[in-house]
Write a structure and sequence with these properties.
Radius of gyration: 19 Å
Number of helices: 9
CATH superfamily: P-loop containing nucleotide triphosphate hydrolases
Strand order of the largest sheet: 6-7-8-3-9-10
Shape: globular
CATH architecture: 3-Layer(aba) Sandwich
Number of strands: 10
Helix content: 25-40%
């Protein structure tokens, strides 16, 4: 995780009183959120809690019924074009072209975003996300984890200061999830602010500097992992024989790098 950011810094993402309904169904009911710059912030909630709706509003893909969203100090409703320049969104499914090679996907996005030397940017990102050897292969031959890493690499073209990751490990196997976690940590080490939605408790625990729990359209808890732990009674010390988890067994069998 990143080192804590000074509380005096302006939030990279600042949300106040966010509301959204679809017909008679109220999805967001007054969400307040502040994401410090350069941190990994996890928005945790079960299916239907409103996580994706919040991300779509932040990304200017959906208009809120009430409330404000500011990205890098810019109002998402009043200045959507400027906000889009400051963010990148990676959805629940990898948005890659399977016919193209990994490098061709990156070069294409680089050209669309009018970056200087898209080929050089592509090569740098392939190296950064350990995809250099696969860069010349069609993405249709990639594993799920490789596609996700490529997708995240594509989101960095143009150096957006804020990256939105909406349930980035949905449908991935345990080894692929670890690969994506490593990619997210790499983003944070480079100073990128990351707002991550997930329904996986271990994902938030592994990655997040701060965690907000969204339940039935409202934030019901927020803070660091230690802050949230202090809300519960102290842990009891017991001596038990710990059996390996199924994930540990799986990774040991397939030779995962984090296997015990």
């Amino acid at each position: 995780m990143n080192a804590p950011t000074a509380v005096t810094a302006r939030p990279a993402v600042h949300i106040r009183g966010l509301e959204k309904a679809f017909g008679h169904l109220s999805v967001l009911k007054g969400v307040d959120l502040e994401v410090p710059p350069g941190t990994i912030y996890a928005l945790l909630g079960s299916n239907g809690a409103g996580k994706t709706t919040a991300i779509r509003i932040i990304a200017t893909l959906l208009r809120a019924d009430a409330g404000t969203v500011e990205i890098q100090g810019r109002d998402a409703a009043a200045e959507p074009a400027r906000v889009r320049e400051a963010i990148s969104l990676t959805g629940q499914f990898a948005a890659v072209d399977e016919v193209l090679t990994g490098r061709e996907n990156l070069v294409l996005i680089g050209r669309l975003r009018h970056v200087a030397d898209p080929g050089g940017v592509a090569d740098s990102l392939l190296e950064r996300f350990s995809l250099t050897d696969a860069g010349g292969r069609r993405v249709g031959t990639y594993s799920g984890g490789m596609r996700r890493r490529l997708d995240i690499a594509m989101s960095l073209i143009g150096d957006p200061p804020v990256v939105l990751l909406d349930e980035p490990t949905t449908g991935l196997d345990p080894q692929a999830r670890i690969e994506v976690w490593d990619a997210v940590r790499e983003l944070a080490r480079g100073g990128t602010t990351i707002l991550l939605t997930t329904q996986y408790l271990d994902e938030a625990e592994q990655l997040a500097d701060r965690i907000a729990i969204l339940h039935e359209g409202r934030i019901i808890a927020e803070g660091t992992l230690e802050d949230l732990k202090r809300r519960f009674p102290p842990a009891r010390v017991e001596y038990i024989e710990k059996q390996p988890s199924l994930e540990e067994i799986f990774l040991a069998i397939v030779g995962g790098k984090d296997a015990p």
